[in-house]
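Hello again, I could really use a second opinion on something today. I've been puzzling over a protein and I'd love to understand its fold better. I'm sending you its amino acid sequence along with the backbone structure tokens. It would help a lot if you went through both lines with me. I've dropped the whole record in just underneath, so have a look.
***
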Amino acid sequence: MAAPNLFSFQGKVYLAQRQSTGKPGPLRWVGNAPQLELALEVQNSDKFESFSGNRLLYGRLVQSKTANVNLTLDEATPENLAEGLYSIPATLPAGSVNNELLPPGLKANDLVALDRGWVSDVAITDSANPPVTVPAANWWTESASGGVIGLRKVDGLTQPFKASYKHGETVNIALFNTPPPERMLILDGINTVTGQRAKVTLYRLTFNPIEQLALISEEWGSLQLSGAALFDESRALDPDLGGFGRIELARV
């Protein structure tokens, strides 16, 4: 039989937009989260006595209290990325582009990035009057998803070239396009040693920007989010709730 007070927690982490009422909006499961840490800290001002000759600690004034949070996410969903990039994901619909100007002065074997990715039905014309279609043998698609094309031959054609193409629907995550939102965090956890259920709630949470995002890596990728739980005065007067959050353990 396991010792009754040993613990090792796992569980589902949910984030929700904090509503004006102070309650959470719809919960969003963040997927596999191998690490969730809560670090409490106080800043003290110490007073040392001056009468014994030993300058001993005589008093301590707590100047501030902070509750910091570290959350590791394994799944790079648009919503998870947006948390650490201060972004609101937006769907850019599929469509078509006509006569997009390519850079002037292109030479054979140059690569060009189109404005959109996931391209198909690409056609290239030059700037002659009337325009001349650049033969398909004169260029190639280097990457359809990246929207990259390459040029084999440019002689006898009038630049700048123009590209027309279709593009696919994408989810756009622009960096720093929104202030950091306030979240509520709920952990629906279990002590894997004893089977005891636990619930952790943080009322007001803001994340810092992701310090480092591994865009190319030989290992599993992860999103390292850090932030702070903010004081919630609407709950602070209730001793069962507290001003930052609470941990609830099932009675066993």
Notes: The first strand starts at residue 9 and ends at 17. The mean pLDDT is 94.
